[in-house]
Amino acid sequence: MHLLFGLLMAAAAAGQPVAEIFLPNMNDHGVNRALGLARGVVEDVYADIGVQVVWRIGNTPPSGCEKKPGRRQIVFDLKFGIAKGRNPDALAFAQPYLHEGSCVTLLMDRLHEEAARNPDTTGILLGNVLAHEIGHVLQGIERHSETGLMKARWSARDIREMWRTPLRFSDIDVELVLEPFRVFPSQGISQGAGRAH
Known about the structure:
Layout: H1 2-13, E1 18-23, H2 29-47, E2 52-57, E3 67-68, E4 71-79, E5 92-94, E6 104-107, H3 108-117, H4 119-139, H5 156-162, H6 171-178, E7 183-184, E8 189-190
């Protein structure tokens, strides 16, 4: 606990944005193994753009996905059964406009099925999926890009590539992820104000 607090304070002191992710405990060996790999992928993707990811597993989450100066708290929930209006092949989905409750949901039936078959490959895929869904929440909008991590649908080639290296954010997605971290709370203005996007 003290180590985690120390990491948060060090990142804040360095001016590095922090994404604090609250995940519930899971009592499934295959899913936990896949999630362990997935967390490493997420950390790698976000470190590449200067965002530190801190995981809070099994802790009591905040009441919703909160935005604080230099830090975002993202709450995950678990769903069993069918998610209406969602792709039946999805492992997770984000709701970036929610302020109360969880803003990312893991679809446990599908995740359990995939992890039981192969937790390692599921972990790599899940890491890219989670980085994508966290990206929606950090950007604060439901949008997709033509290339990279934030594409609406990944091609077979994209999926093959992620086994070697995680998908990356396009330049515009990097800007959209980082922009909310740049807002000065006292003035309500952005460090990037005046720049064309």
